[in-house]
Design a protein that fits this description.
The complex is a heterodimer of chains A (109) and B (871).
Chain A (H helix, E strand, L loop, with lengths): L5 H13 L5 H12 L5 H14 L2 E8 L7 E7 L1 H18 L5 H6 L1
Chain B lengths: L9 H10 L5 H19 L1 H44 L1 H29 L11 E9 L4 E4 L5 H8 L3 E16 L2 E10 L3 H4 L4 E4 L10 E4 L1 H8 L8 E6 L2 E11 L12 E4 H5 L12 E6 L5 H15 L6 E6 L3 H4 L12 H42 L4 H38 L5 H4 L2 H26 L4 H6 L9 H33 L9 E5 L5 H5 L3 H11 L3 E7 L10 E2 L1 E3 L8 E5 L4 H5 L3 E4 L13 E5 H6 L9 E7 L5 E13 L14 E4 L8 E6 L4 H15 L7 E3 H7 L2 H35 L1 H9 L4 H35 L10 H27 L3 H6 L2
Helix pairs in contact in B: 1-3, 2-3, 3-12, 4-11, 4-12, 4-14, 4-23, 11-14, 11-16, 11-23, 12-14, 16-23, 16-25, 16-26, 23-26, 25-26
The chains are: A alpha+beta (109), B alpha+beta (871).
Chain lengths: 109, 871
């Protein structure tokens, strides 16, 4: 079973959250707001294309808009496979953490 | 966002486009721009620009990593597709690879030749600083270059501090003897400075300055092997004939093997003082080459002028102008050189490079034609790729990749071919090439560049044109790629145009060569040997009765039917050329002369038209009676020839006339070609003057037991002149060797047009095969409707045959021009007949026709049932 990496989870969740507005600028912003992780566009698109290749994400090409110098946006959408993978990741997370009390962290302090 | 807002900086935007993934690049650029404007709004333009720059810089490493990952993945895909295409179309791939490999092999061979030519004399250190001094005598009507007077080199070294080193060099050919081995060798007389100027490394030497001693001699490895075999010659003695005496020299050095691309040819070097002694300070004779090495090669023009002025001011004997010849330039750029032999011309390199390019281009045309022909098959593939989002750039890459792949396969085959032809190529270029020349780093780079170049050219049409169509058109099949396609037709036309020009050049060169070696020269060269008497010491030659003794002894040999003497050799370029005016006429005529004996005419078979031959012991004062050729009579307008008297008038440097003894014509011969056929037959007179001595003896044999007869003659020759090498040639071979250059070029052109024909025909073979395949249904239907086999053959071949005939006719004027230019080098030529063009044209058409007919006949004889059933 393939497990999503943390990076992939972050991106997929950001895309899901943004719904119909999931394109480069917004995804980057959203990720930065939620997690304090700042991607460069290089890394962002590299990872997005990986997700597309794996089938977790689909893309649609949007209309041209003036504020982008007439360039079209690529919108990303979490696919069915993406949702399944997210669900599996979450379940795995829960299983792993099941029965482990939060106090293990406070003990270390 | 106001439109007035400053746009994002251009450079990073450009970098972005360069590196980002082509599938999403527009979106990335858009994201950048959007965020840039946002930031500019909030924090100001400068901050935004800074962010833009930094962010692009940060992103680039990822972009590059991605690009590499992507392209290796695509690379694998390209290879897979390319190999599949190659395998699917075996015949076309074979034609392509075959043609390109021959084209590449030709290019590689010619590259080797040109590289060798460029490297002539370049092995000398600081060769750009080496100059040869020569003097020019300007007598108004003619200018002659001479090596300067003997003291010049010494004087220059003394008077000019910028001349680092200077030496004089004299070249002689003289007998060299060790025990019973005696041969004529090329000897150079010079001084120790010779080795300061030139770079000829020593394999062994007795001391640091091996040429210092007056009795020393330095020999090449070839001489060491020839005269000493296993022995080490260092410190041994060898006998060299100098100034007509046999002198002993001590071998003080042995040179390493001389580079083949050296124009300075010699076997031994002796000290010039030994040769000339006290004469070295005499200004009388123009007789020694002078070489200098200067510290500032750029300013040699000024130095040249100062040398002339200085010599003329200080030395009253030095009355001529002096010039400097850059040593390394002589081989390709020409000029004057006393020292260097192998003058070539950069023209040959250009012509050869042109030929290589032509053959390569014909092969590339094949590739294009076949690619276009196949495009109707590939068009669906291209359409599918486009529909699935392939960008034009990617299709470019794929097509070029395929053509590069073919080029590289062809390169491997081409290198194998090159190695196979290398020995033959070395033989007829008279250079030494080895496989290691091919694999030197620089050569590898050049060869790869040629390969990439041909791959690029070959792939350009399919890549640029086919990738440009819109997918919709591709599927609608609206594009017609048939043999009617203008581009294909012009390529076939060009191929045959070039090929026919090459064939016609070959034919004319061959016919001219055959004419040159076969022409009746006015004398008979069969079964004749020519023995050189020039190496015989002067004192011996001047002893009375020497020549009678020699010819008498040779005539005693059975199988010898006659002998004749002449002063200079028939066909040699120095057959006594002079520049006299004749007393009888006012015009100045170029006249040749030499002295012969009374048997000369009969032995050589030269016919007397009128008058009489010399009689033995002709009573006349110093060659007064002469026999002239017909051209002499014609050019000088002498009507009543026999008994006419004339005297030669030389115009000397001062412009005054020097008149010589008058001559009287006693006989007239037919014109015979005493020079090679490059020259017309100039006026010639032959005098009877045995006291001047003869340089050559012609011996006619009866053709039986030739080898035995020659060795018999040699024995008798050695009895009289024991210290002289017996140098003889077969006269007919010697005549032929005058045209060695013609023979070499004729075979080079011959080979290249042969390859051109093969490549062009194989291309036509492929294109016509495609045309037949495409027309299979049409042909079948025509057959069903009653068309005859000949009708179908006509249908298929008429287009191509028409093209070939058109190419022929277009090639004729160009070939005519080339042939005329070629033939301008000769005074005696074949005529450029129209039927040669027609015959060659027919031959080319038949070759082309038969390749097409092969398919046409097959197509026409197919059973229509089989082809139509599949519908």
């Amino acid at each position: 079973m393939k497990v999503l990496t943390i990076h992939e989870q972050i991106l997929l969740l950001a895309i899901w959250r943004l719904k119909d507005n999931a394109y480069g600028v917004r995804i980057r912003q959203s990720v930065a707001e939620e997690t304090d992780m700042v991607y460069t566009y290089g890394t962002l698109y590299s990872s997005l294309e990986q997700l597309v290749k794996k089938g977790y994400v689909s893309k649609t090409i949007g209309e041209a808009t003036a504020e982008r110098g007439g360039r079209r946006k690529i919108y990303y959408n979490v696919s069915k496979e993406g949702m399944t993978a997210l669900k599996e990741a979450k379940e795995l997370q829960n299983t792993l953490w099941n029965g482990i009390p939060d106090m293990i962290f406070s003990e270390e302090k | 966002m106001e439109g007035k807002l400053k746009k994002p900086p251009k450079i990073p935007t450009w970098i972005l486009g360069l590196f980002s993934n082509p599938e999403v690049d527009f979106s990335i650029a858009g994201d950048f721009e959007e965020e840039y404007y946002e930031m500019a709004d909030r924090k100001g333009v400068n901050k935004a620009r800074l962010w833009y720059w930094l962010h692009v810089a940060n992103s680039v490493p990822t972009f590059i990593r991605d690009t590499i990952n992507r392209s290796t993945a695509m690379f694998g895909n390209y290879i897979k597709i390319a190999i599949r295409n190659l395998m699917k179309q075996k015949i076309y791939s074979a034609i392509n690879i075959f043609g390109l490999s021959i084209g590449l092999a030709c290019s590689i061979l010619i590259y080797l030749f040109v590289r060798d030519e460029m490297k002539f004399e370049r092995f000398h250190q600081d060769v750009d600083k080496i100059f040869e001094v020569y003097s020019v005598i300007d007598a108004g009507a003619y200018r002659i270059n001479f090596p300067p007077q003997l003291p010049v080199a010494d004087v220059l070294q003394r008077d000019f501090p910028e001349i680092i080193s200077a030496t004089r060099v004299v070249k002689i050919i003289t007998p060299v003897r060790k025990d019973d081995r005696i041969f004529s060798e090329k000897v150079i007389a010079s001084s120790q400075e010779f080795f300061d100027i030139f770079t000829f490394p020593m394999a062994q030497q007795l001391n640091d300055r091996p040429l210092e001693d007056i009795n020393s001699v330095i020999i090449t490895g070839r001489i060491a092997e020839k005269y000493f075999a296993e022995e080490n010659p260092l410190g041994k003695t060898i006998t060299i004939s100098t100034e007509n005496r046999m002198n002993e020299f001590i071998i003080s050095g042995i040179l390493e093997e001389l580079p083949t691309n050296s124009g300075l040819k010699f076997d031994l070097i002796i000290n010039i003082e030994r040769l000339y002694g006290d004469k070295l300070n005499e200004w009388k004779e123009n007789s020694a080459g002078a070489v200098i090495k200067v510290n500032d090669p750029e300013g040699y023009r000024q130095l040249e002028e100062r040398i002339s002025n200085n010599l003329n001011e200080k030395y009253s004997d030095a009355q001529s102008t002096y010039h400097l010849q850059p040593f390394a330039d002589f081989h390709l750029k020409g000029g004057y050189s006393y020292l260097l032999e192998s003058a070539s011309s950069s023209r040959y390199s250009y012509i050869l490079t042109g030929i290589a390019l032509i053959v390569l281009l014909i092969a590339c045309f094949n590739f294009m034609n076949l690619a276009i022909g196949r495009s109707s098959i590939r068009i669906k593939e291209i359409g599918m790729r486009k529909v699935f989002g392939a960008r034009r750039k990617q299709l470019y890459k794929q097509f070029w990749f395929e053509s590069y792949l073919i080029s590289f396969i062809a390169l491997i085959a081409g290198v194998v071919l090159t190695l196979f032809f290398l020995p033959a190529f070395s033989h007829f270029t008279q250079k030494i090439f080895s496989a290691s020349d091919l694999f030197s780093p620089f050569s590898v780079v050049v060869i790869l560049a040629i390969t990439v170049f041909s791959g690029f050219i070959a792939g350009s049409y399919p890549a640029v044109v086919l990738s440009g169509f819109r997918p919709v058109d591709l599927f609608k099949n609206e594009l017609k790629f048939s043999n009617r396609n203008l581009f294909t037709r012009s390529l076939i036309f060009l191929q045959f145009f070039i090929t026919v020009i090459l064939i016609l050049s070959t034919v004319f060169m061959f016919l001219q060569y055959r004419y040159l070696v076969g022409k009746d020269l006015g004398f008979n060269t069969d079964n004749m040997i020519v023995i050189s008497l020039e190496e015989i010491p002067e004192n011996l030659r001047q002893s009375s009765g020497f020549y009678e003794d020699l010819s008498g002894r040779i005539n005693q040999v059975s199988n010898v039917t006659g002998t004749g003497f002449s002063g200079s050799k028939l066909t040699s370029s120095v057959f006594g050329a002079t520049f006299p005016k004749l007393r009888t006429t006012s015009n100045q005529v170029l006249i040749s002369y030499t002295n012969v004996d009374e048997n000369f005419f009969e032995t050589l078979g030269i016919k007397l038209l009128s008058g009489r031959n010399f009689s033995p012991g002709e009573q006349n004062e110093a060659g007064r009676n002469v026999i002239v050729n017909s051209s002499f009579i014609e050019k000088l307008d002498l009507n009543n020839s026999i008994g006419t008297e004339f005297s030669e008038v030389f115009v000397n440097d001062q412009g005054s006339d020097n008149t010589f003894t008058s001559k009287s014509i006693i006989g007239v011969t037919e014109d015979f070609n005493y020079h090679s056929l490059h020259y017309e037959v100039y006026p010639l007179y032959l005098e009877y003057a045995p006291e001047k001595g003869y340089g050559y003896i012609y011996v006619r044999l009866n053709g039986e037991n030739t080898a035995e007869a020659v060795s018999d003659i040699k024995d008798r020759f050695m009895q009289i002149v024991p210290d002289t090498p017996f140098i003889y040639t077969f006269f007919d071979e010697e005549i032929q060797s005058q045209y060695a250059l013609e023979q070499r070029w004729s075979s080079i052109i011959n080979y290249s047009s042969f390859f051109a024909v093969i490549i062009a025909s194989s291309g036509l073979f492929g294109v016509s095969l495609m045309s037949v395949v495409r027309k299979t249904r049409e042909i079948s239907i025509r057959k069903v409707l009653g068309s005859s086999v000949t009708g179908i053959i006509k249908l298929i071949s008429k287009d191509f045959i028409g093209l070939v005939i058109l190419a022929n006719i277009a090639a004729w004027p160009v070939s005519f021009f080339i042939a005329r230019t070629l033939l301008q080098n000769y005074a005696f030529t074949i005529t450029i007949d129209f039927w040669i063009f027609v015959l060659t044209g027919m031959a080319a058409t038949i070759i082309a026709g038969s390749t097409i007919c092969f398919h046409a006949v097959r197509a026409a004889s197919m059973n229509p049932v089989n082809t139509l059933r599949s519908e």
